């Protein structure tokens, strides 16, 4: 009879002691995380980029032309150009020469509007009844109506010009009616009949838009 073979005892796993568990955790924490999962899903680390170096401006500072800045001293107000007017010092705002400049501009605008009104009168004297074609007669009447609307706007502008000339004589021209601050030469060159500064005009337009006239 064959003897039963002796069974080889299987080694028992040693129970993990608390000290070993703690050491394993610390080792895993200190181990470099270089596996595929962490490399794929780990958030990207911000890369430090050097701060941009500010570029020095290559433009040279603009210098005021001395000839323009001093031209008003040797010219009359009516002879000044817009560039020479704008080059005048701020403390010379609405001096006699600037007032003379705008007085001449307002008067020239007034004369131009009166001349246009005379031409309108001549055009309206044309008798449309002698035009045989009804389409041509309707076209002429439409042109007359358009010209009358234009003259009506110019009539209102003539009233503003008269008021501006009166303000010139009273010494109020160039200053805002609401705030008393200077309107500014650029705004007056664009609209010689302006009575409000740009900020005051914008506030008034905003109120009119919100609350009506």
Walkthrough of the structure:
With 213 residues, this protein is mainly α. The chain is built from eight helices and no strands. It has helices at residues 18-30, 36-41, 66-70, 82-86, 96-124, 134-170, 185-190, 198-211. The longest helix has 37 residues, at 134-170.
- How many strands? 0
Low-confidence stretches: 1-8, 27-34, 53-62
Per DSSP, the total helix count is 8
Order of helices and strands: HHHHHHHH
Short summary of the structure?
Helix content is 54%, strand content 0%.
Topology (SSEs and partners):
Elements: H1 18-30, H2 36-41, H3 66-70, H4 82-86, H5 96-124, H6 134-170, H7 185-190, H8 198-211
Main features:
mainly alpha; single chain; 54% helix
């Amino acid at each position: 009879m064959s003897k039963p073979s002796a069974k080889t005892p299987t080694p028992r796993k040693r129970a993990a002691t608390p000290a070993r568990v703690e050491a394993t955790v610390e080792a895993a924490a200190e181990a470099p995380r270089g596996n595929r999962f962490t490399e794929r899903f780990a958030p990207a680390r911000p890369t430090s980029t050097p701060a941009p170096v500010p570029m020095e401006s290559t433009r040279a500072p603009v210098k005021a032309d001395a000839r323009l800045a001093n031209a008003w001293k040797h010219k009359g107000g009516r002879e000044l150009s817009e560039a020479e007017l704008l080059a005048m010092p701020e403390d010379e705002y609405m001096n006699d020469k600037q007032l003379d400049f705008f007085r001449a501009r307002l008067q020239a605008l007034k004369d131009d509007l009166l001349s246009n009104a005379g031409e309108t009168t001549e055009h309206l004297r044309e008798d449309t009844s002698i035009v045989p074609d009804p389409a041509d007669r309707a076209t002429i009447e439409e042109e007359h109506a358009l010209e009358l609307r234009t003259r009506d706007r110019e009539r209102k502008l003539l009233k503003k010009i008269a008021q501006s000339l009166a303000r010139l004589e009273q010494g109020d021209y160039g200053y805002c009616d609401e705030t008393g601050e200077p309107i500014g030469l650029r705004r007056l060159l664009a609209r010689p009949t302006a009575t409000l500064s740009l900020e005051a005009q914008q506030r008034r337009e905003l109120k009119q838009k919100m609350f009506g006239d």
